[in-house]
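Sequence decides. Consider this:

===
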Amino acid sequence: MDPHFDLPPEAWRARLSDGSYQVLRCEGTERPFSSPLNQEHRTGRFVCAGCEQELFTSVMKYDSGTGWPSFSAALPGALDTRVDRKLLVPRTEYHCARCGGHQGHVFEDPGSPTGMRYCNNGLALRFLVDPEA
């Protein structure tokens, strides 16, 4: 994690919406099908809502039918992973490598172009349209 983003909770609360704070800093999960990013199909980049690190491109996005923005791969070095044991079955959780913000979980998915699904909370992302598209 970048030391510039090692902020106290009060600084994160001032920087983020309540929903984004719950997801990014408290490892919350938004309701499925609640993110407008599910319907985002323009050319651009998906960045961390906490620090604007680029995490995914629009080419990596696909419709998994799960209700959360899903990606078949991530940009190299953008994410850190760890095992999440909050449920009965261990899952692989991923966070922004720059600010440590919780993004979502990665699963095997035979319907994905790569066989993997990065299932992301929309509240943890911002979409930046490619100005040249």
User: Anything to note?
Assistant: Residues 32 and 68 are 6 Å apart (CA to CA).
